[in-house]
Amino acid sequence: MLYFRRATEDDVPEIVSFTMDTWEWGDYIPRVIGRWVAERRAYVAVWSGRITAVAAMLLIGKSAYLQGLRVRPELRGRGIGEAMTRFLLDEAKRGGASVATLLVAEWNAPSHKLVQKVGFKLRMYIYGGRPLGNSGGRCLSGVEAYEAVAEALGKSRGYACLPDEPWVCTALTPWDLLSRGTPCVDESLYIGRFSFGKARGDPGVDVTSLTPDGYKERYATHFLYAIEL
């Protein structure tokens, strides 16, 4: 029987064992799973005493962000990924979320098919990679900062990525963003490692943005999907 639970520290070695070689270049899950477990955002699917899948969910206000779904290679195609996604959506509802989002790389056809089957709808595109640099710009505070962020969110239909976790992109309020970074303006508004326009930030770390401009190394385009709960 398949069941789901929060991941524990004891699960980490087993999770790492089946997520090391997801793609030719490897996977990022082994680097972050320990932190996700410590932050209580990681969940596992268990079948016949074995961990068969792992995924994470982060609640931010009334939004939930799903990430890192991985199923053991030998057990793919049995509906485990879909079952886990539906479980996480139920968890999000229980946690008070009214919307859930996730990112899927443009080339990941199986994941696009899965999330569309569950009921997720494409909302926008997210671009990420290493930026050319940060020109500095003028940083904002007080009412001016709030109004600038609120205006930018209005144009993005309420979707943005976190300034301190730029690959976490979901429906956010101005306060969600302002509590995590200071907005600055040059050619566009950016907060920490996320920009509403042209990419900005330290060329040595990943950033995300709502336009494909401003990168010295840009990764695959990601599709931001959302579902009402």
Automatic annotation (TrEMBL):
Any idea which GO molecular function terms this record carries? acyltransferase activity, transferring groups other than amino-acyl groups
Q: Which Pfam families match?
A: Acetyltransf_1
Q: Does this entry carry the keyword Chaperone?
A: no
Spell out the PROSITE patterns in the cross-references: GNAT
User: Could you name the domain of life of the organism this protein comes from?
Assistant: Archaea
Which InterPro entries does the UniProt record give? Answer: Acyl_CoA_acyltransferase (IPR016181), GNAT_dom (IPR000182)
- Show where the N-acetyltransferase domain sits: 2-149
In terms of SUPFAM superfamilies, this protein maps to:
Acyl-CoA N-acyltransferases (Nat)
Q: Which CDD domains match?
A: NAT_SF
Q: Which Gene3D superfamilies match?
A: 3.40.630.30
Which UniProt keywords are given for this protein, alphabetically ordered?
Answer: Transferase
> What is the name of this protein?
GNAT family N-acetyltransferase
